Amino acid sequence: MVSSIKSVTWRVRGVRAVIDGLGNVVCLESPHTIRRIVTRWMSKGMVNDPEDSASMYDYLHLKIGWPTEQQLLLLKAAIGVGEAAATSWRQWRQHNCLDEMDPSSYLITPQLYANLQDREIDDGDLQKLRGIYRYNWTKNQIAMRGLNHVQSLLRQINVQAIVIKGALTLLQSGSDYGARTLNDIDLIVREHEYEISVEQLLNHGWNSPYLSMAYHRHDYHTGLNLQHPRYGDIDLHWRPLSLFSDKSTEDAIWNHAESLHVPFDSLLAPDRYDSLLMIAHHGRKREAHTNLRWAIDFARRTTESQEHFDWDVLVDRTVDAGLTPLMSDVLRFLHDELDVNIPERIIRKLSRNPPSHRELEYYRHTAYGTENLRLLKRLAGHWWRYRIACQRHGSTAGVRDFVRYSFRMRREALAVPHDWQVVRHSIAQRWPWATSSI
Question: What is residue 339's DSSP assignment?
């Protein structure tokens, strides 16, 4: 069905949406706009069958990272209030089976159970959801012990860290550690403290599959994955937002940060506005592990903060961070599709701030990611990141250096053991020329 559609180009709010017969999609718009595109196709006779229209709608959503119609029902069941949540669950259950959920939907099952457990739902799936919830609670207890371990190690060297993303959501939800799945724990340290922080963790049982980034910060990345045999994974970031966010924006995030509660009182949390920026920035992607969870995190954070929440502050910080197209689509999606109480004037205010070409390019690359792409598209994405980082530091993006970077990152992805990392680091300190090409 998709391959029969001719190439279509349509301009909406100055952003080009292209869908061709090979399934290549370039679209930065909300689900509301996708419906308009499909409706336009039907009016032109390009899509005649309503079932084809629904399939195309879901196809475009998956390609661009927006939830499908069935996933929207699960989201409404996870964040809805009262009977509305139960109704959405029953509607989803009519056409779907819990044992055949897609990966994105499966990752919000603990949140589904937490919201549905007190509703009058009489089916066996609720017991299955309870089992997933309890398993997730156990996993998160181990992850929190890992966070406590990292906290103690960083405290020894007087390094502060900000907790973000899923771990922050768990810590701010009280004792309900089962209501949110975690792939890893994300922390931010200051850029000049990154190397001593990594050194401290590597010396106390943590390991990294990425060889050179474990000892040297790379300007074309924003974080490093570290692993522990007992505690799982953490991602240690040295930049809180995008590659091209300026230093004043990053310093402001640290200035706005607040202390967490005991037993994590030596760690910091971003304030409510910066937290929403990071949820949108790190979550609004097409990868399965982020496709739905960010919407629940964002919706609940805004609901909890309604009384003292200044939406204009969020708009100002969004513009300063260069994330206008991202936040505009996120707010429009939550307002239109999930009925989150977001003032219409705020969405219009964001739309009146025209994004730069650089911001649109960044949104396209981050929303798409590089997973499951063909080689040339993946290289184009990495080249863009490399070029932006070079511009940030006033250097020239050279093809030869980019090729060396690409081969090095490919080798590091093979999970080189920590013992070899230590050997290589020692050799590099004594004879730098010996490892310059590794």
Answer: -
